[in-house]
## 1
Amino acid sequence: MVEQSEKSLIDALKFVSPGTSLRVAINDLVRSGLGTMIVFDSPRLKSENMLDGGFKINCRLTSQRLFELAKMDGAIIISNDLKKILYANVTMTPSSSIHSNETGTRHKAAERVARQAQTTVVTVSERRKKITVYSGTLKYTLKTGDELRNEVNSNIQLLEKQREILNEALSNLNILEMSDLVSVGDACKVIQRTRMILKISESLKKSFIELGKEGSIIHMRYRELIRGVEKIEKEILRDYSKRSLKKSKTIISNLTYEGLLDLGSISRLLIEKLPEDPISPRGFRFLSHLKLQEKEVLQIVKKFGNLKNILEADSKDFEDILKNRTEAVYSEIHKLREQILSGKVIC
């Protein structure tokens, strides 16, 4: 239910992003010092008798019509596709037994309607000039355009720094893996930075949805910064973690930023060794850069056990797995190793 509410909230944020008819009307209301409640239609509104009074409109939704109808005290009911205004000046009568943390009459009713009808409700506060979105059990207060842009720019700068650190850690790990000199801490530094980037990325997603088209240019930079990070994390975890990939991701995603800064915690939870202990990668990340099927990668890792054995093996050792492609893949392995050692490739 929470996941469904989160999805509904994300959809609602798209509808109220800058440039949409709904957001234009809402911004006009804020500037005019008017308040309103806009309710997305739901079958439960009628089946559970939450509508009282008002009148049927059933007309095309435009920002101007919304603004004019919002001058009346009651709520406005709109279609979920944002194409029609269905009702106006409606008194909402949700169950008073539903808990609400709000104090104002309009916001308390909005929260209860969203919870009871499992729908989305947008309120505009005439006194505080705040826009609040309720979706099921979730609540989100929209930020102003300036607040959003400042927040996004600050997080993008943080992402750039984290990506730079990640690339350095990867470059260092590459060399160490080719020489079989990796310590647990070296691997954990990469895991640490990939997860930090993904955490920052998650916090940015709603901001970009709120910004709408206004954030399209900076969103391109954001996509460049996070490109390939999930794949890197996946392969590093497959190479070093003692737990399944799914369990490893769950553990690392549950760590706070403070927890991520502690390499000892990461190494203990995932690898069950101290940061200074030596370790050999299984070879998943290295092999993922070759022209191999997933089945072949699994067979090679199972047969050789770690990357050191893969790199030291003769071509004939791969024949039972690769058949007539043995020489080509064997050549690829050594070519990639040389490129990594010369610093030409960051896996």
Note: The domain at 146-271 is CATH 1.20.1260.110 (Ferritin).
## 2
Amino acid sequence: MDIQGNMIRSTIQGFSTSYLLYTACELGIFDALYQERRHVSLLAEELAIDEDILFRFMRPLVALKYVKEEKNYFNLLPLGERLAGQAKDSLKDFLLFTGRQAMPYWSKLCEAIKMNKIPYQLVEKQPYFQAQIQQNEKFEVFHNMMSKTSEQLQLDTYFAAKKDWHCIKTIIDIGGGSGEIIVKFLEYYRNAQGVVIDLQHVQQKAEEKLALYGFDSRCTFQAGDFFHAVPRSGDLYILSRILHDWEDEAAITILRNIAESMSENSALTIIEKILPEVIEGNASHLYMTDLNIWTMCGGKERTQSQFEALFHQSGLKIKALYPLKEDDYLIEVVKKDFEYQEGIL
């Protein structure tokens, strides 16, 4: 048996598995099977798909253990349930985002590298985030993915280490989207008021979500642009999964604007992934994430030393590092004139 050849061929065909799952999601297969099993003929009728093509399409989903088949009846297995929109821990929005936006950009990877361009520049006429403003469909796909990802973020290890819940009065979430992250902070900091800062087109989503969570009396939305100015008077600033969207110069601009608004007692909490300082075999998914963010918008994932360089040029420094789940870290940052405290790593 050609083990190496089979491994290479399997990796080469990985794109087809991605398209298989994405297509199943777009067709509504996982949603249709979430509550109960369906006979292939009934499923084909409900989804308006040719029965023969549907059966052939379902076979690899069965082989990959997303779906179970018995006498032409199909039902979801645990992996398939995670791709149904009804699931609490659903990855449907992430899959739709990947299929609708990331995959077309990756198809231009070779050409872009040869031309010294970012792949999305060969597909889109506008910068990535400008397109979010002017094309509602792109915004909806991106927003749904980020909203679900933020909901699933777990900050238990960070809050367990904090003892200052009564000291924080004002929390400002920079680029806070529809508020999923700041709500987690307001639940812990029970005496605090919050402000979500983001572009104007996000306001309706943010206000609806804050009302849904029951925090509309303690948190407001304020239109703003972190490249121009950041509100003062925050005891705690949040910057969640923002810096990886931007190359170094832009990231430093964002950080300097926040630093200028921070008081001596303010803290900035940054949520990002951190790459290993040296290449590690078990971190391949992080390196692919780094390539993906570059392909999408020209951003980058960073090592701790690369973050420290950004902070140094922005008048900031790391106070502590808190490992979260799914390779995320919360980086607590203060202004440079404070004494460094050993982080938790």
Note: The longest helix spans residues 136-152.
## 3
Amino acid sequence: MKVDYIIVGQGLAGVNFCYLLLQHSKSFVVFDDNSQQSSTVAGGLYNPVVLKRFTPVWKSDEQLELVNHIYNDLASYLETTLDYKLPVKRLFNSVEEQNNWFVAADKYGLQKYLSPKICNNNNMAVPAPYGLGEVLHTGRIDTEHLLATFKKKLASTYINESFNYDDLIIKEDAVIYKDIQAKNIVFCEGFGLKKNPYFNHLPLNGTKGELLTIHAPDLKIDFVLKSSAFLIPLGNDYYTVGATYNWTDKTNQPSAEGKKELLEKLKTFIKCDFKVVNQKAGIRPTVKDRRPLVGQHPKYDNLYVLNGLGTRGVMIAPYVAKQLYNFIENAIKLEEDINITRFSS
């Protein structure tokens, strides 16, 4: 079998890159063994502001522009709904926090994202005597549904097995893997990159994140609530609570410690009964400089990597997938911020 691309891994990076290949009539096969869970357990939130530091997300304007049409295009292609427009509201715990919000909302780069008005709250389940601040241009992508429906739609291109690096033959103008010959191979493996002999020299750290799903019939909020944790409405009185950050545990197994941490945080800002109905965990592919890992192998010209999306994969994936596609197919230079050559010295 001859194809244009072999894609290894099918999280948010892989799906976005494959969608570009589809749009440009490029043929491909995908190898995915479901070993990496960070995309399927993601909260799916897109939010252009780092609320902890009141700074814009890296490339927020460019990323949001792509988010707003790529996921809508994908939803049309898959004949489903993926994008749920939801405001994000930051709960204030003091007058000082209110004042910090007003200062931030006046800053260049943040004015279009932070509403200068304080939202009053009459919901007894969410005590907010100092009100809430609203982040604009936010929402949630149903990442689990996206990955499942994309895989179902393109079932003929998927090979559900682990990729064996020892079986890869690299030639000057092609790569050969078993009975498949391709012009290029792109590794979108998330934390699985640590086992990849061609790219495991890159400084991918990996940060475990855990989420809870709760059922809270008396909560009744239709926005994302940010306090010591995020609370994301899913519909029918179900909510996602997240997320934890663990830099030592590199397993996909939910932990009692993660659950305890999230419940303790949740109980500080909601006052109603709820029941935990699910807990999930995954390893985010994080990088020390908080920038993606995108680029070409230093020795083999037809090997590429698309990785390191960190905690904001929903926003970053369309942007870096487009960058890599244009680099490979149109010889457009990668931005230095994301190019893996930044670690070559």
Note: The chain has a mean pLDDT of 95.
## 4
Amino acid sequence: MGISRRVVTAIDGHTRYLAREILVGFGLGTSMEDLQAFLARTGGTVMEASETLGVYRILLPENINVPELAEQLANDPAISLAEPNYVYDLPELLPGGTSTGEKPQWIPPSGNGEMAVAVLDSGLIADEALSSAVLSAYDATNPNAPLTADAVGHGTLMAKLAAGLVDPYRTPVGEGVPVVIVKAFADDGSADSYTLMNAMTHAVENSSGPVSLSWGTETPSKFIETAVRYAINSGSPVFAAVGNENTGRSIYPAAYPGVIGVAAGTADGQYTEYSNRGNFVDIIAPGSAGGSQGTSVATAYVSHVAGLYMQHNPNASASDTVAALIEAAGDDRYLSEDEVRHLLAK
């Protein structure tokens, strides 16, 4: 619509959202008349709509207090959910880790079938090896343009980890894993709820494998939770980073029900100093690879292992895959090299 994006910081000092934008979901039994009545009452205009999730992205007039309006709409019987269009940032990769060399004996995936690891991140700069693993690439920040760049660099490393070109153990595993790349974060490293929701629905529609989310926020969103639930209900296990600050505070989407929260661990199976921790951590994995470290790395690696498991066990469901990984990790929740070998040998 040609509207410039302006980010507003809420009174709490850390929650951010796009000015003048509100996301609205209407309840069962509502009609277009209800939508039109809402637009007339608020002076809003529909910018976009997700038919899959039943969500409208609405532009409001200037000087509307969006959080206040969202609270008021909680009492509207025609509306099931309303929130500001929250803004999130990709985590910075921490320096360190092994070199970026490719894994020995890596073989490009055959690409047979629809199983692939969906990586929702900052985009892709693909070399010849990585290109051979990419099943499809989509720019959710600009759907009409081809995905040819990664201004941040975060997404390219996560794609290599998910495909198996880079991993913390440099363990040769033979055939790599196909990946579906979805750019959900803009060139400045930020994303909004609506774009992330569209990225999620695209990932699910184009892959039946794991979804890798190497990012997180302390700001919960019912709309993002709805998108994650859609992926899980569609048969895709979802893995998410728990954060690179040891605060003990919940990080989303890792803390949403059904999502597998991944923390970063040291070679001896302990949490790294920087890794977050809490009851939302399900698996701990090495977080150092490709010249960088962080729970982002650990998450993409665990997603790769999940993809390999589903490749080796084509009848395994999402719940089967998650159960197998958690059982392999054991009581300490750390997924060691030997445990990965044993898991994939089954």
Note: The chain has nine helices and 16 strands.
